[in-house]
Design brief:
The complex is a heterodimer of chains A (74) and B (261). Chain A is mostly helical and 74 residues long. Chain A has one domain: F1F0 ATP synthase subunit C (F1FO ATP Synthase). Chain A has three helices and no strands. In chain A, α1 runs antiparallel to α3. Chain B has 261 residues and is mainly α. Chain B has one domain. Chain B has seven helices and two strands, in the order ββααααααα. A two-stranded antiparallel ribbon of chain B has the order 1-2. In chain B, a hairpin with a 2-residue loop joins β1 and β2. In chain B, α3 runs antiparallel to α7. Chain B is globular, with a radius of gyration of 22 Å. In chain B, 26% of the residues are buried. The chains are: A mainly alpha (74), B mainly alpha (261). The interface between A and B is medium-sized, with 13 and 16 residues.
Amino acid sequence: MDAEAAKLLGAGFAAIGAGLASIGVGNVFAKFLEGALRNPGAADAQQGRLFIGFAGAELLGLLSFVIAALLIFA
Amino acid sequence: MAAEGKVDPMHQFSIEPLFGSEGWSIAGYNVAFTNSSLWMAIAAVLLAVFVAGGMKRQLVPGRWQMAVETFTGFIDGMLAANVGLAGKKYVPYIFSLFMFILFANFLGLMPLGVLGLHPFTFTSHFSATGVLAVMSFSIVIIVGLVKHKLHFFSLFVPHGTPLVMIPLIFCVELISFLVRPFSLGLRLFVAMMAGHVLLEVLSSFVISGGNNGAVMFAIAGLPSFILMVGICALELLVAGIQAYVFALLTCVYLNDAENLH
């Protein structure tokens, strides 16, 4: 396998990271909703934490996009 | 777009000097007025107009003043919740940051292409978002050092850490502190760039599907178009969320600087 093909394969494999991050983001919102429906009174105050968790989960998925872009273009 | 009907999804991010300014330079560095700077200026002007329209200070606010006050109230509430009373003085900075990013993200998604304009999302470049992130980060460091002097470094050793763990925890906390500007800028830039690449790729499916006869249009072009409408709505949501997350994380970091932990 030459280097170019290996790079493109690696970029393709990096897409797995994006898929896994989607599980993470789904988890963040699902758990929040689960908790919010149990105790709606406390839900609004926790919205900031919800988005911090979302940002963390999303960033790790976006990193896989960065790796893919680096492999293809750099 | 490249010739031969093939769409290059990265072309939309190319930076070009405008108005014959490619030769401008200061101390050997090129300072051409690019399409990126043009759209930054447009975003800033629109933001100034938006805020100026709400500065009439009527006792019973009209629609415009209400819109501006909703945003300032939202930022005020965010700072009060995350930083507390000390957060009041950061409202102007966080408000400008949030609104500038919000306007930039939305401007890049506006369908101005039908008018012949080519919206450029400058938040899809790390050089732009990186500077915004470094600004937030330097405010955190300056405020922390001025307010707590060298005591600021106790940020890296949380209360009640066992003595043997201190070297390890210090390193972990230091690294997590130092990657903040990168993660802050990277998140916004990648989210914007990925969304725009996705839209461009889908639109290329629609175009090449339409060019290859009715059957291809029906099985490839039309579904992609419907998907694209949905993704556009998602991108509008992402544009809002990313601006919110940027402002929110800046608030959280400011809280560290103001109150340590």
